[in-house]
Amino acid sequence: MTPIERFTHLGRSPVRAPDQTTRNAQVRGAVVRLAAVQERTLRIRSTYGADRQGARVDHYVFEHDGRGELRAVMLTPASPPPWPGVLVCPGRNATLERVTGLIPPDHPGRDVAAHLTRAGFLTLTLDHGLDLWAAPAALGGRDAGDVLDGTLRLHGGSLLAALAEDALAALDWLRARPDVAATGLFGHSMGAAVALHTALLADEPIPLCAASHLGTYQTMIGKLLAWNQYTALPSILRHADLPELYTALSPAPLQIQYGNADARLDHDDAAQAGERIATSYEPGRAEVLDLPMGHSTGLAEAADFFTRALAKPAAGDDEPFVPAARVSFGVRARLDVLDLVDDALASGSLTLGPCGARLEDLAGHELGRGTAAVSSGSSALEIALRIVGVEGRTVLVPANTFFATAASAVRAGALVDFVDMEPDGLGLDPEGLRAALDAHEDVAAVVPVHLAGVLPDSLPQVLAICAERGVAVVEDAAHALGSSLDGRQAGTFGRLAAFSLYPTKVITSGEGGLLTAADPADLERVRRLRDHGKLSFEENLHEDLGSNWRMSELHAAVGLTHLARLAEVLAERRRLAAWYDENLARVPALTHHEISPDCATNHYKYLALLPDGVDRAALKRRLRAGGVRLAGEVYDVPLHRQPYFAPRFGDRSYPRAEAFTARHICLPIFPGMTTAQQERVVQALRDALS
Ligand SMILES: *Cc1c(COP(=O)(O)O)cnc(C)c1O
């Protein structure tokens, strides 16, 4: 079996085949992982320019950490700005001067940058710098690219990734220019491989014209000695072959050209690959051209493609879509997860192992309290309430919280009752709490919920009331990992506290939860209960009725990696929230929720209150139609109105919870969100509410 057949066999069984969109995202993800590019910005070392036949020619030399310098030539058309821009990645044997037409071409189609600039495009042509980085004597006749590739591979990199990294930086540089309207990528031969990977690694869809680089890797490397090994990422066939890499760019405009007289490609192989791409791509967005040429470029076809692909977009089309939330694991984090998962698989330690222990240590260190990892936030709550001993007794929970807060108490054998929200705040109402404690003699626990990640003003009073009455406090800190009040971390106020690591939460393990306990004996009990009440890992003696509430090592790998980035995640959320704080004044209809300066929230949710009479569902539909999705509310239906509880509590009234659940919205806030996206949210709200 060839590697690709093995891959096909595993990943493409008829039952399990993912749809094309998912598959494309997986392929792009694999490329990001294998390329593992670092962030790079271009720093200009020197530049000089001149006018030449009505157009302008600028030479740039950029600093390059690995190779000393990176040369580029920018050609500016004679027409007035702004111009559509094209980044040109030349083939291995092309020189900058020939591609930009500064000296006559040695090969048909070589002067592609000159041609595109005559057609009205600003072009930036990169010299990949493969022949400049080392002195010929040091190479001793070896190919400079091969030596560089070999060196990079020692560090788990590759030359292709390094070239794509350069091209990404050049693309950013081009896009930041105020005289460049929209940008596309062109590449020929090896440059086409660079351009393709650059497009796959770019954050946004980008039009690509790739010339003379088509086929399947097996055929290309097996048959033709002329093929550069460094036009493919190491290990890529475990994930995708070249046609699938092109397909993964869908729906960005794509043109692939190949020549029917190209001695370096296998024509049948290229034609079949082209067919595969054309049939899997978003209809009408990809064209594969079989041209009467050798290993060359169809200049007119390329210019025509960019003219169509970079035409001024219809108004609104280029505005950033804003999702409600996004789970973001950067490439470093993903590689760390893979290493930890591989450790677990190699050692056979798949649950209650070293990774979970490290997660517990790190969480304990962050929170300043002993911590155990469990299978979910809900199981953390249930275990905590079982330890407190709530069976047959009453547990008081907020009228406005997630269903799981109350459901966990019910599963632990308790009866629940609800307490309204405090005036002008998100916490429990101290008066309501006193009244509920008076009404029930058998209250075993109170569960304050740190809604939206905020440690509410009323928390100290709630804790004091519970202490006075001798009632245990179990914090539902599912929203609040990383939040603190007067420097004290969420999850360290109650006898026990539960955190959720569900994907929508600030830190996730996929599925999972954390439990903290003030008393080490409680923490020991947590460890027994999560593993069927077993006395120890080795002995099959059970003294408690626990359950399987364990966290697997695979989940722990994700959680540990994410938790290790808590400080970054918090800093980013706080930066985004500060931007909203400053800019929400532009939407006068909205009241932004004031948070006490004593609370350092993790900004799990960014809350705002709608004016009376605004139909929230209609507002959300309207925003959605304009490309802005609001995050989910916390919450839109209070517990006494939930169908499960309504038969018993439906006639109750909790006026503050009812008003809050009906009136608030949650603005999108997630790591990786851009200022342009935030700007879009504010504009959309302003338009919709004025
Ligand atoms: C998410 C959440 C839970 C439950 O956590 P899971 O990990 O999904 O079981 C409990 N309480 C609140 C307030 C939550 O938001």
Automatic annotation (TrEMBL):
Region forming the signal peptide: none
Cofactor(s), names only, from the UniProt record: pyridoxal 5'-phosphate
Keyword set includes Secreted: no
Pfam families from the UniProt entry: DegT_DnrJ_EryC1
Region described as Disordered: 1-23
Transmembrane segments: none
Keywords, in A-Z order: Pyridoxal phosphate
GO biological process: polysaccharide biosynthetic process
InterPro entries named among the record's database cross-references: AB_hydrolase_fold (IPR029058), DegT/StrS_aminotransferase (IPR000653), PyrdxlP-dep_Trfase (IPR015424), PyrdxlP-dep_Trfase_major (IPR015421)
Record SUPFAM superfamilies: alpha/beta-Hydrolases, PLP-dependent transferases
CDD domains: AHBA_syn
One function term, GO molecular function aspect: pyridoxal phosphate binding
Domain of life: Bacteria
Family statement: Belongs to the DegT/DnrJ/EryC1 family.
Protein name: DegT/DnrJ/EryC1/StrS aminotransferase
Source organism: Nonomuraea glycinis
